[in-house]
């Protein structure tokens, strides 16, 4: 028996996409498999690790916990949407590069989206606030020191406009 699909429109990274998905298709799977946006990584599939975090209407959301049909009508930003329109790195991406905030890179997309939302809410975090900001994301490679440094540096870049963003 063929599973019934639903025709949905997803607004991802400023572009509208149409997809036919089963009702139980996770947003993470729709992004990766239906839209070809493979930057969103799937780790634990239980919402614990944070690797699949995307922004839904500017708020961090575990895409492995949200159905794609529920995302219709919302603005979704994946890691691919964090770069500037000219392709240059956004402030969080730039800070991760400068501060060596990644190693294997598997968890990085979730950190980048989480931090982007965190800095929008708190544009001048202390080191403790930066640590709290990323506390819900797991990394098996780093000791989080450079990730915390990257949060503070990203906030600095965003405030000063050094990343070129308006």
Please give a structural write-up:
Pathway: Alkaloid degradation; nicotine degradation. This is Carbon-monoxide dehydrogenase small subunit. It is an enzyme of class 1 (oxidoreductase). GO terms for molecular function: 2 iron, 2 sulfur cluster binding; anaerobic carbon-monoxide dehydrogenase activity; metal ion binding. Keywords: 2Fe-2S, Iron, Iron-sulfur, Metal-binding, Oxidoreductase. The protein is an alpha+beta fold and 166 residues long. The chain folds into 2 domains: 5-81, Ubiquitin-like (UB roll), CATH 3.10.20.30; 91-159, DNA polymerase, domain 1 (Orthogonal Bundle). The chain has 6 helices and 5 strands, in the order ββαββαβαααα. The chain has helices spanning 27-34, 68-71, 91-99, 108-121, 127-133, 145-160, and strands spanning 5-12, 15-22, 53-56, 59-62, 75-77. The chain has a 5-stranded mixed β-sheet with strand order 2-1-5-3-4, with helices on both faces. Helix 3 (91-99) packs across helix 6. The protein is globular, with a radius of gyration of 16 Å. The protein starts with a strand and ends in a 6-residue tail after the last helix. The model has no long low-confidence stretch (mean pLDDT 94).
């Amino acid at each position: 028996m063929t599973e019934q699909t639903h025709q949905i429109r997803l607004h991802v990274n400023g572009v509208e996409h149409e997809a036919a998905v089963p009702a139980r298709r996770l947003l993470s799977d729709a992004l990766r498999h239906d839209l070809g946006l493979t930057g969103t990584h799937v780790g634990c599939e239980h919402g614990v690790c944070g690797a699949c975090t995307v922004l839904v209407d500017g708020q961090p959301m575990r895409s492995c916990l949200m159905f794609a049909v529920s995302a219709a009508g919302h603005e979704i930003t994946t890691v691919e949407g964090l770069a500037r329109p000219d392709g240059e790195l956004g402030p969080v991406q730039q800070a991760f590069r400068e501060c060596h905030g990644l190693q294997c890179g598997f968890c990085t997309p979730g950190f980048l989206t989480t931090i982007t939302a965190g800095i929008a809410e708190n544009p001048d975090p202390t080191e403790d606030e930066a640590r709290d900001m990323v506390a819900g994301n797991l990394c098996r490679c780093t000791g989080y020191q450079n990730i915390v440094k990257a949060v503070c540096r990203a906030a600095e870049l965003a405030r000063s406009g050094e990343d070129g963003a308006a």
